[in-house]
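quick q for whoever's on today - can somebody do inverse folding on this one?? i tried earlier but teh output was garbage lol. C-alpha cells:
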C-alpha cells in the first residue's frame, strides 16, 4: 500500500512514532503504520476481520495525534 500511495504522489510516513502523554509526561510511544498527507492514519491489519481492539488502537492514535480520520485496512 505504501508503495502505491507514493507512486500516486502522496506524502506518507511509515511507522511514525506518536508520543503518549500522561499528566504532561511522555510515558511511551505508539507507532502508526502509515500517516498519509499528515492527515490520515492508516492501520494495516493481517486479521481476517477488523475487531474492536483494532478500532480502539486507531482511536487511541487519533486522540494522541489530534488527527480526525483513521482507517483500519484488512486484506480480507
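ok took a stab at it. sequence:
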Amino acid at each position: 500500500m505504501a508503495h502505491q500511495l507514493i507512486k500516486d504522489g502522496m506524502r506518507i510516513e511509515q511507522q511514525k512514532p506518536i508520543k503518549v502523554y500522561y499528566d504532561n509526561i511522555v510515558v511511551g510511544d505508539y507507532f502508526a503504520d502509515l500517516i498519509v498527507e499528515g492527515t490520515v492514519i492508516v492501520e494495516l491489519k493481517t486479521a481476517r476481520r477488523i475487531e474492536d481492539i483494532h478500532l480502539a488502537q486507531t482511536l487511541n492514535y487519533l486522540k494522541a495525534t489530534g488527527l480526525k480520520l483513521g482507517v483500519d485496512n484488512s486484506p480480507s
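fwiw Residues 2-73 form one domain. also The mean pLDDT is 93. so keep that in mind when u check it
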